[in-house]
């Protein structure tokens, strides 16, 4: 026999927008198990279309997608449904993108790889309660490496331009880019 759902449970619609299909499927299954009615998209265009057709009450959006910036989906959702709770996921965490995400309407910003428990906690946390500091935050070396990688990508993988913008010697930058990411 089916259990009856309350009106608040029927409003727990969740849109997950991420171009990493295995991650998208795992997170969707995990969030369905936590009581959300989940819809997924793997492009900005698909995410925007789903927001336009039926704006969800919750969203998890990857910052960088193959066809654009996930913040476009966050902004559209904020315009369509101001009460929606959105979090942004990214592998390129830095202060500037976190500020942009929050200004666009996100309630939290999580670095990948974020697990389903972290995502669920961020989506359902009381807005008046401050988030707990992470158990295993990125090291300073990792944050530096992520920032360099982000600037490098924004400069279309041009080493000379990236070095100029970061105010570092080109050879130093090349050595950093040749190494593996620090933990």
Automatic annotation (TrEMBL):
PTM sites of type 4-aspartylphosphate: 62
Residue intervals of the Response regulatory domain: 13-127
The organism's place on the tree of life at top rank: Bacteria
Pfam families: Response_reg
Keyword vocabulary terms for this entry: DNA-binding, Phosphoprotein
GO biological process: regulation of DNA-templated transcription
GO CC field: cytosol; protein-DNA complex
Keyword DNA-binding annotated: yes
MF GO annotations: phosphorelay response regulator activity; transcription cis-regulatory region binding
Entries under SUPFAM superfamilies matching the protein: CheY-like
NCBIfam families: ActR_PrrA_rreg
UniProt protein name: Two-component system response regulator RegA
Species of the source: Oharaeibacter diazotrophicus
């Amino acid at each position: 026999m089916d259990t009856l759902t309350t009106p608040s449970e029927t409003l727990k619609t969740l849109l997950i927008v991420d171009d990493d299909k295995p991650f998208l499927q795992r997170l969707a299954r995990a969030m369905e198990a936590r009581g959300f009615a989940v819809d997924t998209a793997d492009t900005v265009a698909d995410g925007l279309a789903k927001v336009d057709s039926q704006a969800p009450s919750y969203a998890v959006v990857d910052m960088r997608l193959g066809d654009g910036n996930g913040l476009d989906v966050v902004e559209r959702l904020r315009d369509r449904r101001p009460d929606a709770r959105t979090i942004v996921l990214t592998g390129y965490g830095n202060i500037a993108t976190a500020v942009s995400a929050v200004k666009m309407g996100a309630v939290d910003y999580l670095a990948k790889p974020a697990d389903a428990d972290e995502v669920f906690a961020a989506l359902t946390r009381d807005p008046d309660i401050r988030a707990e500091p992470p158990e295993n935050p990125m090291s300073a070396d990792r944050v530096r490496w992520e920032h360099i990688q982000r600037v490098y990508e924004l400069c279309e993988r041009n080493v000379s331009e990236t070095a100029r913008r970061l105010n570092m010697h080109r050879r130093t930058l090349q050595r950093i880019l040749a190494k593996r990411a620090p933990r």
